[in-house]
Amino acid sequence: xPSLSHIIDKEHGYAVRxxxxxxxxxxVSVETNTSENVHVLHAYSPDRxxxxxxxxxxxxxxxxxALIAAQRHFLSERSLDEQIGEPSQQVLAGHHCTxxxxxxxxxxxxxxxxxxFIDGPFxxxxxxxxxxxxxxxxxxxxxxxxx
Length: 147
Known about the structure:
This protein is an alpha+beta fold. The protein has helices spanning 64-78, 134-142, and strands at residues 4-9, 14-19, 29-35, 38-44, 52-58, 83-84, 88-92, 95-106, 109-119, 124-129, 144-145. It has one domain (4-145): 3-Layer(aba) Sandwich (Protein Transport Mog1p, Chain A).
């Protein structure tokens, strides 16, 4: 990866390495927001594909199936041609998670996203990334969650 920002958020229990520029030369934007005790870190390239990585920290441990149902409803309302995969169990960096894939038009562009729901000791995390990009996989591999 090119030059990296190492983001360590002790309050929300995660650390991740985000490149400042993509291999194709796109400048990466990183935004954070907290609303109603839900914290979001969103990193993306202008095309929202070469790099698209988002981690949401919910203020408590929450039911994955309820979060997935709400997310699927949100996606189906915004995409007329959506393809939403069935949830499956996976492991990410030693943490069990529930995942599903999305493919469809969002914001006028065809998007592919993988959604992961992971429980840490105090929080449930939702991770969203474009699974078609190797760079996103590298960012995901750099993610460390509190044990």
